[in-house]
Amino acid sequence: TKHFPVRRNLRSLMSRTSSAVHAVDDVHLALRRGRVVALVGESGSGKSTVARLLAQLYPRTDGDIKLHGASTTVKGGRAFRQYATRVQMVFQDPFASLNPVHTIRYHLTRALRIHQHAGSDTAELERALHELLDRVALTPPERYLDKFPHELSGGQRQRVAIARALAANPEALLADEPVSMLDVSIRLGVLNLLRDLKERFNLAILYITHDIASARYFADETMVMYAGRMVEAGDSETVTQSPAHPYTRLLIDSAPDPDRIENMASDSTDRGNGEPPSLIHPPAGCRFHPRCPMAMPRCTTDLPTPIEIGDKPGHWAACWLYDEATVAAQPPGSAAA
Ligand code: SF4
Ligand code: MG
Q: Does residue 269 carry a pLDDT above 70?
């Protein structure tokens, strides 16, 4: 859970109400090696906040982050330090994530020194640098090592950012919209690279995207967020082919044809009807109720919590259509007609 305090104005000071942006509320997720989990939602759904929480870039309001079962809460503690190496982030913007005044060699050498305590053996360091660029298919490496970021394309820069993450020999990558700023024509290549790396190094990958079509293509599991809450989760095939939550259906209906991955559009954010709600005063009950075509009276007052639905284990939805009492009588899909 992450709430951001809002600077209080005079009126709120006088009324003594404190307000906060409820960016992420009660989201649970597990990453496993060799698996990709997609976190899908519109801008403002809280998905980047989840990534930043997992990257420990800012503190949680509530909850815990564990690595192999050990809490990483204590800053500077052993588990925290392990976590900082084993979990690496790939940012959305490959133009901002590399320092323009330094060469690729500098960026990768620095990462190797920090994470692998690379010493002064220059031949060994050179081998490690070549190996890193090889892994992300920037070959021959000597063509790229002494270039500056501005001399590379966006896709090449994102590959360097991925190589830098790999320098830590990580178990998990947190990739926040890793291809959304790249040309449509090269997105698939970068996603395929990530998939190959997942296989080769048995990585856990969190893939954050607003594009549910790419989640189906790339991820084993998909979690959908709306207004800071998890609304549906399960294996990607189930969530994208038999979506249970009305919001997931809306996302799929408004997405480009999921079978045509090459169409992965950069502008598919916020295509659904209506606007995401305020996270300072989120709607009572189900946060999706103002936009939901299926809304019932109780949806405006009672918050639905995730329950396991349907006959596929691990398929979760937070929606009153799947009230525990009615799940058995009303399988997913039948409620949608
Ligand atoms: Fe719609 Fe109600 Fe389900 Fe929310 S709980 S998604 S408003 S039917
Ligand atoms: Mg974002």
A: no
